[in-house]
Sequence to fold (439 residues):
Amino acid sequence: MSDQAPNESLFDDVVNLAKRRGFVFPSAEIYGGFRSTYDYGPLGVLMLRNVKNAWWRSMVQLRDDVVGLDAAILSPPAIWAASGHLETFTDPMVDCRNCKERLRADQIGDTCPNCGSSDLTEARDFQLMFKTHAGPIENEGSVAYLRPETAQGMFTNFMNVATTTRKKPPFGIAQVGKSFRNEITPGNFVFRTREFEQMEMEYFVPPAEAPKWFDYWVEQRYGWYREYGIPEELIKLRPHDEDELSHYSAGTTDIEFLFPWGWGELEGVANRTDYDLKAHAAASGERLEFFDQAANERYVPYVIEPAAGATRAMMAFLLAAYDTDEIGGEKRDVLRLDWRLAPNQVAVLPLSKKEELEPTAREVLGLLQPHFQCDYDVTQSIGKRYRRQDEVGTPWCVTVDFDTLEDRAVTVRDRDTTEQVRVPIESLVAEIISRTAKA
Ligand code: GAP
Fold:
């Protein structure tokens, strides 16, 4: 595993590409942007959805022991009091008296990184949850929080899910959705933002089996990133030291990625023990237990939690995929994304704008669309259009030319090898499906 930071301009190259090609835009840009929030553009929304679908496929679709959930984002203080977030979900904050910058005390030395002054206030705790009011009256009784993690929805619904699905431990509840944290220092593009998407799964197990399942999930989740294209030298496991464990955790291992500024967390796998179910049972007065009929005993399951960020994972996949090479003496930017994560899998490109090509090109597009997300592009020279597709990671381009009108065949071009082969329209879908199997 390498400890070298990759090419320093990589971060700028990928952020520029993301903006220029419609992956990620600064939010409210026409008003000067808004506090490190981002909007996902036409290509970004496709890729982010692919990342979430890839996670869902591996965590829910391909298993029979994990079910899904989509819980509310607005939530009552009772949840966050019981979970411990009201008391402990804080970051230590200091103010620089000289330049007025607000800083995270645990991320700086003795001086302000903005102006160099050492005139800093004492550190104080800053609550990271966003507070709002539900309903027309703004008083203590109407306080609501935007969830800072999706996890609590799985704990509060534990009995609902266990009863309706008749699942027995070991079983899991998975959820993908937005979470909100009033981060003191958001930054590094979408690495740390105040509004972001998580992909979390709570896996309920008999307490004695927790260590076994913890190891299992660390391995599974590491394997998922590798399967979708993160190379071995850019990913590593880092077990937490005792003093950095979250308030609920008996053990956590982070899956880290080598970002351009150094190693950073992609996902945390935690042994949350029975902390959350017991806390919610005590606070709500409801029994949150499993009754093991065979052994005729009740117990509170332990929970193993793989908790990933969808937006952060998308950034890592973009960074890992970005490459430059030379084709025919010309420099090329290419995103070598796994075909399942690429925004578009196929681009249909009529060789020229001439009207006679359009009906056949649209026929080809119509054949491909039920199977693949497709782009259709008629502007500029064919060479430039290939480069534009390479730059956004489209694995296959299909060109319709004047010969197509005679022989009913098209040219399929591969992003990585740039190899081109002639394929009959009738077998085009089968050809691309066979390439996905090999990719
Ligand atoms: N339920 C446990 C939990 O939320 P976490 O380590 O705080 O654990 C899990 O968050 C993942 O969510 C992180 O590994 C990261 O990928 C993502 N994440 C957390 N805070 C984020 C932020 N401010 N911006 C983007 N992603 C974030």
User: Anything to note?
Assistant: The mean pLDDT is 95. The pocket of glycyl-adenosine-5'-phosphate is lined by residues 149, 151, 181, 183, 192-193, 196, 198, 200, 265-268, 305, 307-309, 311-312 (CB under 6 Å).
